[in-house]
Request: fold
Amino acid sequence: MAIGKWIGGVLGWIVSGGSIIGALAGYVLGSLFESGAESSGAATGYDGYSNNPYAGDGYDEGERNSFLFSMMVLSSYIIKADGKIMHSEMEYVRGFLRQNFGEPAAIQGEEILLKLFERQKSEGMMVYRETIRKVCVEIRFHMNESMRLQLLNYLVMIAKADGRVTKEEKEALYEVATTMGQSTYDVDSLLAMDYSNRSSGNQRRGETYADRDQELANAYKVLGISPTATDEEVKKAYRQLALRHHPDRVASLGDDVRKTAEKKFQEINNAKEIVFKARGL
Reply:
């Protein structure tokens, strides 16, 4: 099966000499290219800007494909962090690819993950863990912080796909985050986000005081601050978080990635509104 336009083509920095992600790309994508990529033109690249419907202003094909392949590599680590491959977590990845790139991409994405699981099994967990560490170091060097945060956001959403985040998954998220140059607070902030599209700061039918207390506690976690923080500290934390997660900072990755970033940005604004309302700001 040929690699579609959602990934493949120009892979940017990951094919540079000595790149561990480049080696993984060769291992995974090579076998998939052999089954028909040449006939589709994927092996020689494509005009991603003019032909890719997900491209926007400032779009960078190589940077985007490097981001997407890095996402698949780290997803393989998070999905198996607790020793199990959960259907819900696999379906989250398939659903993301299906929604943004179509059914062929969902099928190809699953094939890539299965190849990575094979690699993990053949290397053994300890060796594969070191491979992931090296991947994270490369990502830290080549991606800006906003891209790394968006990548981390995808991994958190995968871990949350089955309704709970295990101790092993959380530890793996912490490990990936810190090796990429982020903090455990970034993971906690993303874990506290709620993408259920609930209205923020307003009392909802059937909502109890305990529900509102929990929502406020989660809002503080999203902002990465303590409930004992001063009003000025709250405002400063929000401004810094909004700057780091602003969707414009990942515009080069394509409109689909930017739209996901916009949802995350809205969650940050929702958290701000909840905290500000509770404080009368």
